[in-house]
Amino acid sequence: MIRRLGSHAGKRICFGYDRYLAPELAVYRELLGVYGQVIDTVDHTRLHYLTSAELSCRAMQNDEDSFGVLVCGTGMGMSIAANKFSGVYAARCTTVDDAELSRRINNANVLCLAANAGFELNRAIIEVFATTEYTGRKLEELEYITHFERPAEPVSKSRSLRRTA
Predict the structure, then answer these.
(1) Domain span at 131
(2) Which of 24, 28, 45, 157 sits most deeply, having the most CB atoms within 10 A of its CB?
(3) How far from 11 is each of 36, 48, 86, 139, 164, CA to CA, in Å?
(4) Is the pLDDT of residue 10 over 60?
(5) Is 80 part of any domain?
(6) Residue 113: beta bridge partners?
(7) What is the pLDDT of residues 22-68, one digit of tens each?
(8) pLDDT band at 121; cut points 50, 70, 90
(9) Can you tell me the distance from the alpha carbon of 143 to that of 42, in angstroms, rounded to the nearest whole number?
(10) Continuous H helices in 18-118
(11) Is 161's pLDDT higher than 50?
(12) In total, how many domains does the chain have?
C-alpha cells in the first residue's frame, strides 16, 4: 500500500467513528460522499473508537482501493489503534498543513480527526487529505517503515542501546 501513487479521491472510504461524532454524523457522511463511496465501518451495538478503528482497518486491509477516515473525541485513540494494523499508515491531523504533508510526504492512508475540533476545520482537513497526491517522495524511507511491521527480533547485547560516558 505504501507504494500507491496519486490521491485518495474516488476510492472507497472506510468511515469509523464513535459517540462523539453522533450529532454531526449526517454532515460528515455527506461531505465524505463527495470524495468516494462511504462505507460505515462501525459496530452500532458498541459504538466505540477501538471497535470502529479495528473494523475500518481490517476492511482497508482487504480492499486496496480504499482509505480510512476515523473520528473520535480527540483523534488520538483512533490514530494509536489504527497504526497497529499492518499496511495502515494513520495520521492524526489537526491542521490543513498536517493533512497535506501526511499525504504528500508520508502517503498516509488513514485520516484521524478530533470531533471536538468542529466540522468546519475537519471539512477543510478532509478535503486536503482526500485530494492531495502522493508522488513517490521519500519512498525509500517509507518502505523502511514497513520493516517495523515485522515481529521484533531480539536485540543482542552488542547492539543494545547503552549510554557511554
Answers:
(1) 12-149
(2) 28
(3) 5, 25, 20, 22, 51
(4) yes
(5) yes
(6) 71
(7) 889 999 999 999 999 999 999 989 899 999 999 999 999 999 899 99
(8) very high
(9) 30
(10) 25-33, 49-61, 76-82, 96-104
(11) no
(12) 1
* Residue, of 99 and 137, whose pLDDT is higher: 99
pLDDT per residue as tens digits for the range 69-92: 999 999 999 999 999 999 999 999
- Count, residues in the chain: 165
Residue with cell 493533512: 99
Question: What dihedral do alpha carbons 51, 53, 59, 65 form, nearest 10°?
Answer: 160
Distance CA 6, CA 114 (A): 25
* Domain at 27, CATH number: 3.40.1400.10
Residue 74 within a domain: yes
Of the candidates 57, 72, 93, 112, the residue annotated as catalytic is 72
Can you give the pLDDT at residue 156? 61
- Cβ(68)–Cβ(55) below 8 Å: no
Q: Which residue's entry shows cell 495502515?
A: 88
The x, y and z cell numbers of residue 17, run together, are 467513528
